[in-house]
Specification:
About 5% of the residues lie in helices and about 60% in strands. It has 1 helix and 9 strands.
Length: about 150
């Protein structure tokens, strides 16, 4: 299932250090739950996230692209993406529509207990699918933990 996530990053979310103002985190993902396959399709990978805060409102970016929006309360970030469609198959005969949501304790040097970093999980919910290998309604969950890289103003 992380192939959806990998395709998301590979197809249209290209990370780029220092793209804009915000708090930067280097996040490592490890697959932890998979209801889309008979056995966990494990994924290990990293991505750079940029978090922009406006009071309690938050926008999460990869490079210049918005990954999701949400809020921060007591150092806990909750976010959700728009729905994405991934075209799959040798002849592009399948499509999988999914959304991403996440929760993380984030610390950007402001005293939260995430140890100047990011501790949480990210979830991929398959909303629609005509790909026989990825049923609609399944989920893929990853641990998402990382290091705070600093703030760019």
């Amino acid at each position: 299932m992380r192939t959806i996530a990998a395709a998301l990053v590979g197809l249209f979310l290209t990370g780029c250090a220092g793209v804009g103002p915000g708090h930067y985190y280097d996040i490592q993902f490890i697959g932890s739950e998979d209801t889309c396959h008979n056995a966990l399709k494990n994924y290990n990978g990293t991505e750079e996230y940029r978090l922009v805060r406006d009071g309690n409102a938050a926008t999460l970016y990869i490079g210049e692209d918005v990954l999701g929006t949400g809020s921060i309360t007591n150092c806990v970030l909750t976010y959700r993406s728009a729905a994405y469609t991934e075209v799959r198959g040798d002849n592009k005969e399948y499509s999988v529509r999914y959304s991403i949501s996440g929760t993380a304790e984030v610390d950007s040097g402001d005293g939260c207990s995430a140890g100047k970093g990011w501790r949480g999980e990210e979830r991929y919910d398959v909303l629609e699918s005509n790909d026989p290998s990825v049923p609609a309604g399944c989920t893929y969950v990853m641990e998402a933990n990382g290091t705070y890289l600093g703030e760019q103003k």
